[in-house]
Write a structure and sequence with these properties.
Low-confidence stretches of chain B: 1-11, 22-36
Radius of gyration of chain A: 20 Å
Low-confidence stretches of chain A: 1-12, 52-66, 110-146, 163-175
CATH superfamily of the largest domain in chain B: Lipoprotein localisation LolA/LolB/LppX
Number of helices of chain B: 3
Structural class of chain A: mainly alpha
Distance between the termini of chain A: 54 Å
Structural class of chain B: mainly beta
Order of helices and strands of chain B: HHEEEEEEEEEEEEEEEEEEEH
Order of helices and strands of chain A: HHHHHH
CATH architecture of the largest domain in chain B: Clam
CATH class of the largest domain in chain B: Mainly Beta
CATH topology of the largest domain in chain B: outer membrane lipoprotein receptor (LolB), chain A
Largest sheet of chain B: 12 strands, mixed
Distance between the termini of chain B: 64 Å
Helix content of chain B: 10-25%
Largest interface: A-B, 70 and 90 residues
Strand content of chain A: under 5%
Number of domains of chain B: 2
Shape of chain B: globular
Radius of gyration of chain B: 21 Å
Shape of chain A: extended
Strand content of chain B: 35-45%
Oligomer: heterodimer
Number of strands of chain A: 0
Strand order of the largest sheet of chain B: 7-8-9-10-11-1-2-3-4-5-6-12
Mean pLDDT of chain A: 52
C-alpha cells in the first residue's frame, strides 16, 4: 500500500474507530488494520501505551523513545502486508524493542532513585508461610512508590475512586 | 454521682436533636428500618456526599506527600455530576464524573480517558449497602468535639472487627452531615493516610457554573481506559477474606505489558485490585511485599502468570487474596 493511499484511508476513519481497531489488534482479537503503516497510526500507538503513565504519574509520563518509533516504522515497512497478518511478529517486536526499552527506562529511574528509601520492604514473600501474616504496622512516614508499581497503583486508585485525591508529584527530590 | 450522669447525657441529647433535624432535612428514603446509631452514621455520610451540592478544597496526605484538590459536586437524580481539579503537581489534571462515568482530562495531550467507576471517594466513603458494613466494622461516636475547615464536626471511629482491614477516624460536619476529614489507621492507631477539607461551601451558595471545566475537553478524542472481562469464564478463581466481593472485572493495557486482567473487590470501605498477566522471565521479577501509605502491594508468580495484588488493606489481606488465586 502506498503512503498516499494509506493516508487517505486513515483520514476517512474516525479517531474512536482507529483506537478500537488498534486495541482489538493488540488484544490479538483482530488482524492488523490496514492503516497501521501511517503517521497517524504511530501517534495512536504511542497514545495507547502512554495511557497508563499519563493517568497520574507525572515522572513516568514521557514519550516512547525515538529508537522505538523508528524501529516500529522499519518493522512495519518490512512486514509483508499482502498476506493475512498475524499478531506474532508484532508481539515479537514488542518483546524485542518495547519491553527492553521500558525496562531500561525503569532501570534508569530506579538507579537515580536508589540513594533514597524508595520502598518499605516488608520482607520477601519466599519462605513466608501463608499462616504467618506479614507485619501489619508501618512507619508513619510512608515510603515512595517504586516506579514499576506506578501503573498498577494509579489504575487501582483510579478505579477505587481516589484519582482526584492522589495526584502527588512523585518526582524524586534531589538534595 | 447523679450530677455527673446528667452532664454526660446533655451532649448526647444535643447530638440526637441535631441528628433528628438532619433526618428531617435530608430525604433518607433509603432507610426503611430504624437504624442503629452506627448504621445511621455511615449512611448519613454517604447520603450527604451524594445528595448535597457542595464545593471545596481538600488536602490529601500520603506519608510525606501532600496534595490539594478542588471538588465541585452537584446532586442529581441520575447520580450526580462532579469535577475534581488537582491543584498541585507539574501537570494539570482534572476529572469530570457524570453519574458513574469518569472522564480524566489530559490537557497536555488534549485527550480524555473514559472509565466507568463503581466505587466512591472522599467525601463519600462507602460502596454498597451501609448496613452490610456492620458485620465488618464497629462504628462509635466520640465525645471529643472536632473542628475542620472552620466548621464544628462530630468525631467518630470505625474499628474493624478483624485483622483483614484498616480502621478509620472520621469528622462529620454538624451542619450538613458531610465527611470533612478521614484518617486511615493501622491496628496501633498510627495514621497511614488522611484527607480533609480546608474550605467548603455547602448548599444554597452553590453555583452550577463551577462544574464547567476551563478546558474544551468535550471536543478532545476519547480513549477507553479498559474493557469489561469475565475472569471466571477465563478459568480464574479469586476469593478474598470475609466481606470482600468483586465489583468489576476489566482487561486493560499497561505500558510495556501484555494484556492485563484486573478484578476489583471491596468490603464496602476498602478496595483491592488483582492484576493478572502472563509471566515474562526476561523481566527478572521476584516476589515482593511493599507498602505505600495505606496501600499494601504483593507481587508474585503463579505458574505461568504474574500477579499484582494491591489495596488499602493490611499486607496479610493482599497476601491472602494472592494465595487463594487459582486457575
Amino acid at each position: 500500500m502506498s503512503a498516499v493511499q494509506s493516508r487517505q484511508f486513515s483520514q476517512a476513519i474516525p479517531t474512536s474507530e482507529l483506537t478500537e481497531q488498534l486495541s482489538a489488534f493488540l488484544d490479538g482479537e483482530a488482524d492488523a488494520p490496514e492503516w497501521l503503516d501511517t503517521p497517524q497510526a504511530k501517534e495512536h500507538w504511542e497514545t495507547y501505551h502512554l495511557i497508563g503513565d499519563v493517568l497520574r504519574t507525572a515522572d513516568l509520563a514521557r514519550p516512547v523513545s525515538a529508537r522505538f518509533a523508528a524501529g516500529l516504522e522499519a518493522a512495519l515497512r518490512a512486514e509483508p502486508t499482502v498476506l493475512a497478518p498475524r499478531s506474532r511478529p508484532i508481539a515479537r517486536f514488542v518483546r524485542r524493542y518495547a519491553v527492553p526499552g521500558v525496562s531500561l527506562m525503569v532501570l534508569v529511574v530506579a538507579v537515580s532513585w536508589l540513594a533514597q528509601p524508595l520502598i518499605n520492604p516488608l520482607g520477601p514473600s519466599h519462605g513466608v508461610q501463608a499462616s504467618v501474616p506479614p507485619q501489619d504496622v508501618y512507619a508513619a512516614n510512608a515510603p515512595r512508590r517504586e516506579p514499576e508499581f506506578a501503573d498498577y497503583y494509579d489504575v487501582h486508585r483510579h478505579v477505587a475512586g481516589m484519582s482526584g485525591a492522589t495526584q502527588v508529584d512523585y518526582a524524586p527530590t534531589r538534595d | 454521682m447523679p450530677q455527673l450522669a446528667i452532664n454526660a447525657a446533655v451532649p448526647r441529647l444535643r447530638w440526637l436533636a441535631r441528628a433528628a433535624v438532619l433526618v428531617l432535612a435530608v430525604p433518607l428514603h433509603t432507610l426503611a428500618a430504624e437504624p442503629t446509631p452506627a448504621e445511621g452514621l455511615l449512611a448519613r455520610v454517604q447520603d450527604a456526599a451524594h445528595k448535597l451540592d457542595y464545593a471545596g478544597t481538600f488536602m490529601y496526605q500520603l506519608g510525606s506527600n501532600l496534595v490539594a484538590s478542588h471538588i465541585v459536586h452537584q446532586a442529581s437524580p441520575d447520580g450526580g455530576r462532579e469535577r475534581i481539579e488537582v491543584l498541585d503537581g507539574p501537570k494539570q489534571r482534572e476529572f469530570v464524573r457524570e453519574n458513574k462515568v469518569v472522564y480524566s482530562l489530559l490537557p497536555e495531550r488534549q485527550l480524555v480517558l473514559v472509565e466507568a467507576r463503581e466505587t466512591d471517594h472522599f467525601p463519600g466513603m462507602i460502596t454498597g449497602n451501609p448496613q452490610a458494613l456492620e458485620a465488618l466494622y464497629e462504628v462509635a461516636l466520640l465525645d471529643e468535639p472536632g473542628r475542620v475547615a472552620g466548621r464544628p464536626c462530630r468525631n467518630a471511629q470505625v474499628v474493624p472487627r478483624d485483622a483483614w482491614r484498616w480502621g478509620y477516624r472520621l469528622c462529620i460536619d454538624d451542619a450538613s452531615g458531610l465527611l470533612l476529614k478521614v484518617q486511615t489507621l493501622d491496628a496501633d492507631g498510627a495514621i497511614l493516610e488522611q484527607a480533609a477539607f480546608s474550605e467548603i461551601t455547602v448548599g444554597d451558595a452553590f453555583d452550577p457554573a463551577w462544574l464547567e471545566s476551563s478546558h474544551p475537553w468535550r471536543e478532545w478524542p476519547r480513549v477507553q481506559g479498559g474493557r469489561e472481562f469475565d475472569l471466571a469464564a477465563a478459568g480464574w478463581h479469586i476469593s478474598a477474606p470475609e466481606g470482600f466481593e468483586p465489583i468489576s472485572q476489566i482487561k486493560r493495557k499497561l505500558k510495556g505489558r501484555a494484556q492485563v486482567y484486573q478484578m476489583v473487590l471491596t468490603d464496602g470501605m476498602a478496595a483491592i485490585s488483582v492484576f493478572i498477566e502472563p509471566y515474562d522471565p526476561s523481566l527478572g521479577q521476584s516476589d515482593s511485599m511493599t507498602a505505600y501509605g495505606a496501600t499494601s502491594i504483593y507481587r508474585g508468580r503463579k505458574g505461568e502468570h504474574w500477579l499484582t495484588v494491591l489495596g488499602e488493606v493490611p499486607p496479610r489481606t493482599v497476601r491472602a487474596v494472592a494465595d487463594a488465586i487459582a486457575r
